[in-house]
Amino acid sequence: MQIKPGLQNNVAEPKINLVGLTRSELEKVLVDAGLAKFRAKQVWHWVYHKGTTDFSEMTTLSIPIREELSQAYVLSRPGISQEQRSVDGTVKWLLKFLDGTEAETVFIPEKDRGTLCISSQIGCTLTCSFCHTGTQRLVRNLEPSEIVGQVLTAMDSLEAWPSAQPGRPITNIVLMGMGEPLYNLDNVIKSLQIIMDNEGISISKRRITLSTSGVVPEIHKCGIETDVNLAISLHAVTDPVRDVLVPINKKYPIKELLKACRSYPGVNNARRITFEYVMLKGINDSLGDAKELVKLMEGIPAKINLIPFNPWPGSPYECSDSKQIQEFSKIIMDAGYPSPVRAPRGSDILAACGQLKSESLRLKKRDRVPDFIGSA
Ligand code: SAH
Ligand code: SF4
Fold it and tell me: Among 114, 132, 235, 269, which residue has the least CB neighbours within 10 Å?
């Protein structure tokens, strides 16, 4: 993120953050500063492979170059306002950006992978009726430095440097935190290019999933420019129900959304689209709904992720009973679609993706309990 110059003339020009610049942007900045182009490759390696935050540690650069860089630039990432570690290994960070706004990032370790759930916006302009993020008033897009910064800060905290080593803690990334990534697509594209670069953080496109509420006109561009896995927050099988749960449906109804899914670039049986379906008691969880869902999926290489609803104070819904969820899931599986029920993770630290900052806002209001490690 480029920091705005100070208002007074006698204030020194603030330093520019090099984090979040794509490779070509970084090259341009350094070449404009009079350095050779290959210096960008060296700096990139230090920042995204080694996790360096201090130019003085960049020993492949001469000392005068290191000094020159540190006079004009910084390598900054978000600070940690709060860190909570769950007994099941889930870690939730409340991260603070330069303007004081905060967002949450969650790490979810599993047997064969470690997934980092990141945010694309502060708040969300959409108002899905079951999602607490949609009720937050402050909304702005996150800059590439802030999206990539979430990964860097998480890697610092998990001691994950150098990147791309065997046994690395973070193997997968999901854009399922706060915000609608397809409303911030240009910054998301740049961020993903940086995250995927194989001389840096090096997480492959097959291990990255972007979740959208269904911003139909941006879905194709997302596929062409990022080629990452797509997840769709479907949550209902009829337009009248989806209009209430996911109001963007009024603009882009189910039929149009599924049409965009059918032509998502690179989709096939080995690379399915995930449909997220939050289980809301008496609203969208009848066995008739499950059968309709199977019909809608016809011809789409799909996986259906059933998400137990995570209630928040004042939320107008309840989670479906677990027996209902199992029966719903069976109908979908019998039709040949994988239908995992998302296991609640980090429930002791309220780490559910999609609800990220909400709890922290409430914690703030009641003067926040101190950070804790592993209390159940
Ligand atoms: N805006 C994007 C990505 C962020 S939301 C989207 O809507 O897809 C990530 C996922 O969390 C979505 O599937 C969302 O529907 C789900 N989610 C939001 N609130 C939830 C809640 N209270 N319980 C369970 N899942 C929720
Ligand atoms: Fe926004 Fe996604 Fe929440 Fe809907 S579910 S309000 S799109 S973050």
Answer: 269
Phi and psi angles of residue 231, each rounded to the nearest 5 degrees, phi first: -120, 140
Q: Which two tokens stand for residue 161?
A: 């440097």
Domain contains 361: no
Residue 370 lies in a domain: no
Segment 244-260 shows an average pLDDT of 98
Task: With respect to residue 365, please indicate whether it lies within any of the assigned structural domains.
Answer: no
291 and 278 in a common domain: yes
29, 152: one domain: no
Q: Are residues 202 and 56 in the same domain?
A: no
Q: What is the Cα 7 distance to its own chain's centre? A: 34
- Ligand 2 within 6 A of CB of 352: no
- Residue 290 belongs to a domain with what CATH number? 3.20.20.70
Q: Supply the DSSP symbol for 252.
A: S
Q: How many domains does the chain have?
A: 2
Return the best residue to mutate from 120, 121, 124, 182 for the ligand 2 pocket (most ligand atoms within 8 A of CB).
Answer: 124
Closest CA to ligand 2's atom 8: 179
Read off the tokens for 355: 């609800």
Q: Is the CB of 131 under 6 A from ligand 2?
A: yes
Helix (H, G, I), strand (E, B) or coil at 341: strand
Residue 177 to residue 116: CA distance in whole angstroms: 10
16 C-alpha to ligand 1 centroid (Å): 34
Gap between the Cα atoms of 27 and 21, Å rounded = 9
Q: Across the chain, what does the average pLDDT equal?
A: 89
pTM for this model (two decimals) = 0.91
**Beta strands of 160-316 (E only): which ranges?**
172-175, 208-212, 229-233, 273-279, 302-308
Residue 139 is part of which domain span?
79-349
Residue 369 resides in a domain: no
From the list 95, 97, 19, the residue with the least C-alpha distance to 52 is 19
Q: Report the chain's C-alpha Rg in angstroms.
A: 22
Write down the pLDDT at residue 350: 58
Same domain for 69 and 85: no
